[in-house]
Amino acid sequence: MEEVEAHIQLGNSINVKKAIIAGDPARVSKIAKFLDNPSELKFNREFKSIVGYYRGEKILILSTGIGAPSTAIAIEELFNIGVSQIVRVGSCGSLNDNLGIGDVVVATGVVREDGLSKEYLPLSFPACPNNTFLESSFRISTKDIKYGIIRSHDGFYMKTNYQKESFWSEYNVLASDMETSILYVIAAVRGIKALSILNTVVEFNESLEEGVNDLVNGNAKMLKGEKTSIQLALKILTEGD
């Protein structure tokens, strides 16, 4: 019997090098609609996986759950089964009045305010994407894609959130998420090619609850941004090594 990773419940026999990760298990099924011959693999805890083909290349889609700890587990276990290229298709909250609902952000660097990434590398180490993936994104994407530094953090409901978001907004940090910093840091440690593409679901200084509920309920602008981010991720992964 094949040995499988404890959390994602996948093993080396899947024989795949390229993966898209997403926080929400429901987004895995959405991404799978863009693939040829998609096949469901496992669904354990927050880790749902589907494999299929895009432009003839095998792609694994895996959900990671929310935040750095579960995302780190997913990335480490993907690495253990041979995955060497990962693009995150996620969501973010805007820190800029010019970044609206459905706008897509490619993270060129990350303010590391999560609690886990410093356990891998000191905070003085910059969290950056793979240059080849970033160059591919520039080449493939339209003028509507935004590029810039984002912030990764660990929670929504602390009293300090507004103050922190306002601070980083003053220094042109575009958006906030909870997973990109750990992706970029582990990618650096393990030699993984990585990029994070984010769909804006909450406007700056607007209600988190309203934004997340709109995402769940299928806000048209959010759905458009989600589609754009999925298509960009798939094209980057299959453009060529």
From TrEMBL:
Pfam families: PNP_UDP_1 (PF01048). Residues 19-198 form the Nucleoside phosphorylase domain. CDD domains: UP_EcUdp-like. PANTHER family: FI09636P-RELATED, URIDINE PHOSPHORYLASE. This is Nucleoside phosphorylase.
